[in-house]
């Protein structure tokens, strides 16, 4: 009789991550004993598929920052995992069908008819796609699978007395549900303000000023920002782009093209936005020419990481990983430059490659080799100038800084649109491959806790800046807004002071002696994950009882550094308790969970995306209810009780890392 009882799984969070885990559970359901049913409860107050971030209820002016052809929620046969692939359409393929099938006057159909594979869809269209994905999963699930949606929040998970199962408490009068296993997939968690945010908010309230802390742009109240008045924006990434759109077009301004140049026509209701950041420049534009295929890793692969782990123990990011990562990225870049543009180099690819690949070459040797073989500075891939383009530059006159930033943005737009610089595209693809290798290295226990923190900090920030920037039209609009006097630039190393004497915010930077005084400050960046400050009741309760813990990075000297992310066992994403043991039935995945290096980006088709590999492995672990000791809380896998990554990778993890064959491919109807 026990074998016939349904396995009940509760997924907390119905956004892209939770929906993908659901899809993988359904695809792998045959792991259960014959005749046993699977019952999945999806808990989220927002509609399933899109969840909160990708809900329909947001401004139609907000776009995705990936093209329709580069977004999918279905694994394909490039994905190296154990579970079967169930074919499904990318956003572009789905939109193509929608454009054909939906009648005139349908907002979704009308937008889909305007888009091509290289277009950027609105987030509302992506919401419709994700909602369709969920409905397709539910409609195509085998008869033995039941899917139940709860449009509410989960606020706690506690043991069910005498059963070995768990009670998931739902907000308000929604009651409780009983589950065997729980997956925390809430996406971006809200947090209480930091001490710095509290200080600035208190100053603003005391002096009659305005302060908007970090948050998700679609959730912010921007109505009170005054027209025509200087507003400081701290952060120059994607959150800034959203704010720029909502405070420009969103307040009635419009764009027009005159003599080939984009011109912004203000409504008069816009604030005057003064933006600065650590780098002082926006994220790089998306590449708009057609990209090739990524190459097979040569210097930085899962096997290399496993070998180094066996030789050195848990690997450090800067000492062990990054030199190989950067060598891999430069290899792809220069391969494209030498083979695609041989007139711009002074030696053959074979000669360059042989010398480049020599194992004992350090950075200085490689720089000398590049200088010899690549005459033009614009054709060299230089990390320092790429990462910090304003470093060492100062501008006495704000107009000179303004001109420099505009020229920088214009040059970036031109370069990212020109296949003459196709080596940039090769580097972009190499970054994606490197990200995938990091996911595998994390899952197989290769990384030290400090390395994981460095990946989730500097590396993810650099990746987003170089490879996950805004659509080119958004940067064209930024230039037009700057020429219209709506946006101005403060530079790099931005610092904001709460000036009691002036009763205002005062901003400065390392790029200019010019200072800007304003009554309003907006943190134009997403909040960093910080589970210690989360307002999510479920996670807060788990942490308070020691049933979950924050991931703490331990450096080589034994110093502890909290990362803000939830601690999960890399090999299977089981939540790690405060005592270092792993929960048998509680799992977590997403941007806020340590070891989930896929970040918040959507997976691209044909890229063996870590997102799918992690979700497939997680789903199979959940369904593998009779495995020998994977449920034993006294068997914490790659972690010892000190919280350090201690033991060597397990044979199963090592086998998974090598992943010599793609998923078993099956085909189902992918039409609308």
UniProtKB/TrEMBL annotation:
The cross-references to Pfam families, in alphabetical order and at most eight, read: NAD_binding_9
- Write down the InterPro entries for this protein, in alphabetical order: FAD/NAD-bd_sf, HpyO/CreE_NAD-binding, L-asp_N-monooxygenase_NS-form
Q: Which parts of this chain are annotated as the region Disordered?
A: 626-672
Q: Could you tell me where the Low complexity compositional bias lies?
A: 642-657
Any idea where the FAD-dependent urate hydroxylase HpyO/Asp monooxygenase CreE-like FAD/NAD(P)-binding domain is? 11-188
> Which PANTHER family did the record assign?
BLR0577 PROTEIN
What is the name of the protein in this document?
A: FAD-NAD(P)-binding
Species this protein is from? Actinopolymorpha cephalotaxi
Q: What is the lineage of its organism?
A: Bacteria, Bacillati, Actinomycetota, Actinomycetes, Propionibacteriales
């Amino acid at each position: 009789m026990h074998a016939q009882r349904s396995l009940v799984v509760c997924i907390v969070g119905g956004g892209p991550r939770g929906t993908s885990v659901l899809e993988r559970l359904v695809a792998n359901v045959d792991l259960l004993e014959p005749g046993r049913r699977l019952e999945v409860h999806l808990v989220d107050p927002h509609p399933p598929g899109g969840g909160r971030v990708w809900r329909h209820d947001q401004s139609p002016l907000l776009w995705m920052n990936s093209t329709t052809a580069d977004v999918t929620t279905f694994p394909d046969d490039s994905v190296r995992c154990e579970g079967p692939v169930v074919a499904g359409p990318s956003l572009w393929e789905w939109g193509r069908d929608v454009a054909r099938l939906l009648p005139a006057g349908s907002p979704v159909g009308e937008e889909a008819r305007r888009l091509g594979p290289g277009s950027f869809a609105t987030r509302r269209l992506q919401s419709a796609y994700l909602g369709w994905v969920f409905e397709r999963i539910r409609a195509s699930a085998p008869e033995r699978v039941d899917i139940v949606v709860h449009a509410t929040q989960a606020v706690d998970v506690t043991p069910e007395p005498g059963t070995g199962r768990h009670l998931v408490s739902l907000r308000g009068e929604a009651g409780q549900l009983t589950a065997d296993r729980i997956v925390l997939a809430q996406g971006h968690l809200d947090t209480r303000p930091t001490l710095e945010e509290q200080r600035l908010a208190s100053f603003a309230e005391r002096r009659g000023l305005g302060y908007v802390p970090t948050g998700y742009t679609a959730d912010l109240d921007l109505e009170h920002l005054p027209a025509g008045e200087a507003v400081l924006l701290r952060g120059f990434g994607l959150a800034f782009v959203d704010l720029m759109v909502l405070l420009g077009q969103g307040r009635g301004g419009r764009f027009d093209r005159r003599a080939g140049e984009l011109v912004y026509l203000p409504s008069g209701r816009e604030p005057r936005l003064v933006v600065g950041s650590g780098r002082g420049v926006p994220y790089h534009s998306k590449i708009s020419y057609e990209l090739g295929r990524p190459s097979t890793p040569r210097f930085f692969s899962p096997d290399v990481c496993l070998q180094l782990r066996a030789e050195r123990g848990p690997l450090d990011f800067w000492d062990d990983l990054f030199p190989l990562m950067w060598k891999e990225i430069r290899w792809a870049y220069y391969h494209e430059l030498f083979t695609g543009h041989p007139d711009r180099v002074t030696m053959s690819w074979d000669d360059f490659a042989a010398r480049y690949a020599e194992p004992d070459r350090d950075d200085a040797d490689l720089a000398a080799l590049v200088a010899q073989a690549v005459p033009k500075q614009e054709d060299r891939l230089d990390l320092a100038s790429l990462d910090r383009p304003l470093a060492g530059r100062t501008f006495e006159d704000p107009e000179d800084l303004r001109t420099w930033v505009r020229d920088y943005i214009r040059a970036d737009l031109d370069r990212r649109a020109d296949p003459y610089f196709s080596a940039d595209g090769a580097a972009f693809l190499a970054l994606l491959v490197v990200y995938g290798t990091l996911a595998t290295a994390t899952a197989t226990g290769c990384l030290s806790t400090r390395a994981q923190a460095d990946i989730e900090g500097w590396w993810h920030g650099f990746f987003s800046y170089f490879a996950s920037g805004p659509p080119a039209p958004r940067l064209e609009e930024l230039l037009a807004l700057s020429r219209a006097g709506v946006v101005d630039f403060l530079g790099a190393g931005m610092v904001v002071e709460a000036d009691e004497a002036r009763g205002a915010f005062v901003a400065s930077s390392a790029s200019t002696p010019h200072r800007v005084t304003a009554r309003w400050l907006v943190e134009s960046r997403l909040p960093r994950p910080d589970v210690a400050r989360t307002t999510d009741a479920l996670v807060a309760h788990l942490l308070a009882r020691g049933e979950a813990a924050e991931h703490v990075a331990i450096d080589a000297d034994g110093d502890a550094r909290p990362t803000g992310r939830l601690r999960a066992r890399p090999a299977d994403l089981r939540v790690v308790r405060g005592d270092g043991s792993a929960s048998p039935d509680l799992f977590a995945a997403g941007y806020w969970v340590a070891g989930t290096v896929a970040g918040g980006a959507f997976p691209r088709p044909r890229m063996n995306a870590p997102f799918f590999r992690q979700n497939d492995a997680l789903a199979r672990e959940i369904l593998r209810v009779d495995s020998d000791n994977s449920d034993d809380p006294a068997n914490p896998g790659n972690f010892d009780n000190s919280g350090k990554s201690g033991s060597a990778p397990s044979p199963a993890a090592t086998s998974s890392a090598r992943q010599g064959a793609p998923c078993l491919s099956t085909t189902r109807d992918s039409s609308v």
